Amino acid sequence: MTRLAKDRQFMELAVKEMLKSHSEHIDKFDPLVGAVIVDSAGKELGRTHRGGLREGNHAEFTLIERILQSTKLDGTTIYVTLEPCTQRTPPKKPCVEWIVSARIKRVVVGMVDPNPNVSGHGIRYLHCHGVQVDLFDLDLVEKIRAANNKFIEYFELAEKSKPVSMAFEGPDETENQLIESASIYDLSPDEIKRYLEFRKKYYIIPSEELWEFMRRNGFLCLQSDKKYALTLAGVVLFAKEPSDFLPQVMIQMEAQVGDRWITSEFTGPLLNFPEKLDEFLGNHIRSFTEIRKFDRIKRYEYPFEALREAVFNAVVHRDYRGGQRVRISIIKDRIEIKSPGLPLRPLTIKRLQSFNAPPFSRNPRVAVTFNHMTWIEEKGSGLLRMRNLMLQRGLRIPRFEQEGTYIKLTFFGEEHAWRNIRVSHKMLDDFEDRERQIISLLVEQGSISTSKCAQHLGVDPTTVRRNIRKLINKYDIIESVGEGSKRKYILKR
Fold first, then answer.
1. 84 burial class (0-12, 13-18, 19+ CB within 10 angstroms)?
2. Is 293 left (phi over 0), alpha (psi -120 to 50) or beta?
3. What CA–CA distance (Å, rounded) separates 114 from 126?
4. Is residue 226 classed exposed, middle or buried when 0-12, 13-18 and 19+ CB atoms within 10 A define those classes?
5. Distance CA 176, CA 186 (A)
6. 3-state helix, strand, coil in the chain (%, to 5)
7. Longest Cα pair distance anywhere in the chain, in angstroms?
8. Which H or E element spans position 6?
9. Mean pLDDT of 206-230
């Protein structure tokens, strides 16, 4: 059995254990957690779940210090459905410390902890102590999230009254850094209003209640002088001109038109970006007319939804620490999207290319805001949907690769993108075989003559004329151009 197959086997066992979990509280939702420990040869040493031996005991602790107390765990792997905790009330130790002290070599994590005080810190702690971290398959992550729905909702809906710490959020604290030169007077009232409408919140703009709401969501921080300062997340999402404070937030868009390049820079708040993106893509992506019965429908070479997913991911998960920008390049036969920063461990280029990567964000506040605006999903299904949309359109699977300190995602266009008229497959089903062959010739060649068509199909010109008349008179899909010996037929626009 391959390592991947063994990993899958023990991931599934951990999920089964998770469902046996016991909660020790009646006034709040505790997570369901399952864990399995396996030796270096792939032999299972033990499994358990939260509260497996005693209420309140975490699964990792129970396995390491109770079930396998006398077993040497050097070089083992633990599969656990929830990111190991980093905080416990003394004298209890966090699970990450138990894992490191037991010399466990590898941890395979299911769901990242939704608690913002833990989220990403467990994984980072393990990395810092030399522990290898991998992730569950996406379909199993979705099962884990579904089983822990109430636990997740608690943290998604809770608006904590305590001040926001500038160093607790997720795997990267950059978005929590204060931009001291920015103040609430630099915020865009229009973008704040739009955000509040999506969140179904009703505050006067401006008002002290609004600033407190923004603070609780990590966009502002109340300083010692009782004045509000903006975090990086607050600037990139809501400032009128974020690039005044952070030049690297500008998004570079360019399109090749013949031998020329048309460039555009987006410098505004990210909440205003989707409309600008759609406008740029709509103006510069090649389109064609698709014939469906009596309808003529404009379609683009690439599925818009897939491109939006890719660009939003590049913007949301980018690294803000350097001076690099997100770049979108529409080239003759492809589209390239470059995002500053390499994959955030434990994600890898290989894992991204499998389109089986669970959600793990470098900038959780920005990601959650895009989720609130319904532009991305936190479930991690966007990559797979992007892949499937391309395949449904008959296009190649997009390719992830590293280019310097960028993640580059390439969308490949059609081999014959010069064809500007198409016929829907559903309509082709209505035609006879020879009529379908004539339509295919027209799509491939743009125009045909009776003699050339007859020669290609191996039939006499009279038969071809009869088929063409039917396509003209019954289906209204073909029209003639030219006269006499120069007469040709084309698909009707």
1. buried
2. left
3. 18
4. exposed
5. 17
6. 40, 20, 40
7. 96
8. helix 3-18
9. 91
Write down the pLDDT at residue 19. Answer: 94
Pair 138, 380: CB distance under 8 Å = yes
**Model pLDDT for residues 238-288, shown as the tens digit of each residue:** 999 999 999 999 999 999 988 889 999 999 999 999 999 999 999 998 877
**Closest alpha carbon to 382 in 402, 362, 367, 363:** 367
More confident residue, 237 or 128: 237
* pLDDT for 347: 84
- Is 82 a residue whose pLDDT tops 90? yes
* Confidence (pTM): 0.69
How many angstroms separate the CA atoms of 104 and 101, rounded?
A: 8
Position 428 scores a pLDDT of: 62
SS3 10: helix
User: What is the distance between the alpha carbons of residues 352 and 419, in angstroms, rounded to a whole number?
Assistant: 32
State the Cα angle at 433 between 429 and 437, rounded to 5°.
100
What lies within 8 Å, CB to CB, of 446 at 6+ separation is 419, 490
Which secondary-structure segment (H or E) carries 108? strand 106-111
C-alpha span between 175 and 167 (Å, rounded): 10
Phi, psi of 341, rounded to the nearest 5 degrees: 105, 140
Which residue in 116, 49, 39, 35 sits closest to 71, CA to CA?
39
How far apart, in whole angstroms, are the C-alpha atoms of residue 111 and residue 82?
A: 5
> What separation in angstroms does the CA of 41 have from each of 72, 75, 108?
14, 10, 16
Q: What is the pLDDT of residue 244?
A: 93
Residues 204 and 44: their CA atoms lie apart, in Å, by 58
Output the six-digit token pair for 482: 């030219």
Specify burial of residue 85 (Cβ count, 10 A radius: 0-12, 13-18, 19+): buried
- Are 1 and 13 in contact by the 8 Å Cβ rule? The answer is no
Per-residue pLDDT, 168:
31
**What is the four-CA torsion angle of 274, 276, 279, 285, rounded to 10 degrees?**
-80
Residue 54 confidence (pLDDT) above 90: no
Q: Tokens representing 242? A: 């974020």
Q: Find the length of the chain.
A: 493
pLDDT value of position 192: 97
78 is written with which tokens?
A: 């633990």
| Per-residue pLDDT, 160 | 40
What percentage of the chain reaches a pLDDT higher than 70? 88
- Taking residues 145-164, what's their average pLDDT? 68
